[in-house]
Design a protein that fits this description.
Distance between the termini of chain A: 65 Å
Oligomer: heterodimer
Strand content of chain A: under 5%
Number of strands of chain A: 0
Radius of gyration of chain B: 18 Å
Strand content of chain B: under 5%
Number of helices of chain B: 3
Number of domains of chain A: 1
Order of helices and strands of chain B: HHH
Helix content of chain B: over 70%
Structural class of chain B: mainly alpha
Order of helices and strands of chain A: HHH
Shape of chain A: elongated
Number of strands of chain B: 0
Shape of chain B: elongated
Helix content of chain A: over 70%
Largest interface: A-B, 45 and 49 residues
Number of domains of chain B: 1
């Protein structure tokens, strides 16, 4: 049905915008924000495709991807914060 | 009855698509990081709620609806949390929110 294609196009355009924000983002946190947005859009993309193609088992993929995306974003944040604290402590030592 | 459900889910899906676009454009055009983060995460949560709500109306009383409700619950819990985590990490690492925004100059410092 065409109502799914409208939402799919909107999701794809937003994914492109998120990639542009990731490439252009000055700080690392802009990139983390773009990755987070991209992940959530993938979840929506998967669930809409599940209904477009009639195969309802894609919803499990969408749910799993929502879990993984959340853990991934938090992991990136912990890594980035640890790198800054190591850098600042290294500076304070020498 | 089925016609009403179709029209209602069509309205929900198109509103969700609109909010998704607003979030994408907002994340791209906002001047500073925190405004960008606000634009992206607010519409992010709203859009996923609308889109999956529209899908739930399409699925009716079936296993797919249970999965969709699970997705919605999980997104409603984690999306604000991850946005908070990003903002908190940015603030801790020393990114100052710009306070000297001039309203009439389109957000650029004078």
């Amino acid at each position: 049905m065409n109502m799914y294609t409208i939402v799919l196009i909107a999701i794809l355009v937003t994914m492109v915008l998120a990639v542009v924000r990731a490439l252009r983002g000055p700080s690392v946190y802009d990139r983390v924000l773009a990755v987070n947005m991209f992940g959530t859009k993938t979840v929506l993309f998967l669930s809409v495709v599940a209904f477009l193609s009639g195969r309802r088992d894609f919803l499990d993929l969408a749910l799993t991807y929502a879990l993984i995306n959340f853990v991934g974003v938090l992991a990136i944040l912990v890594f980035v914060q640890r790198r800054f604290s190591v850098a600042s402590s290294a500076k304070s030592e020498d | 009855m089925n016609q009403v459900l179709d029209v209602l889910s069509w309205v929900l899906l198109s509103c969700g698509g609109f909010f998704i676009l607003v979030g994408g454009i907002g994340a791209l055009r906002m001047p500073s990081f925190y405004t960008r983060m606000h634009a992206a995460s607010v519409t992010d949560t709203m859009a996923s709620f609308l889109v999956i709500g529209g899908l739930i109306l399409q699925a009716g009383w079936s296993l797919a609806t249970v999965k969709l409700v699970a997705i919605i619950l999980f997104l409603m819990l984690t999306s604000p949390t991850s946005s908070y985590a990003v903002a908190n990490a940015a603030l801790l690492s020393g990114m100052k929110p710009d306070t000297k925004f001039k309203a009439n100059k389109g957000g650029r410092e004078s």
